[in-house]
Amino acid sequence: MSVARRPLLTATAAGTLLCALWFVPSANATGEQGRADGGRTAVTAGQDDGRLAETGGPDTTPYLLGGTLFLGVGAGFVTLAMRRGGRAS
């Protein structure tokens, strides 16, 4: 592969990743359906009543540890590539 094509391939890969991430759904603290709370009226999906979302979901510790591990491995690969690139020139 010629050196001139590398920036084009890098830009294509980055653009593909950004397009793929565009379709990842976003997390909203309020539900799509309104809810009744005591004497209050139902909250519709675009209004904010100032309360936080419930946090009683699944344990996310394994995901945080796994993400940190993958981030560290990726940083190691970048460091290794930089060192090898420095020796080649």
From TrEMBL:
UniProt KW Lipoprotein keyword: no
Keywords: Membrane, Signal, Transmembrane, Transmembrane helix
TM regions (residue ranges): 63-82
PROSITE patterns: TAT
Signal peptide: 1-29
InterPro entries: TAT_signal
Region called Disordered, residue ranges: 30-58
UniProt protein name: LPXTG-domain-containing protein cell wall anchor domain protein
Source species of the chain: Streptomyces roseicoloratus
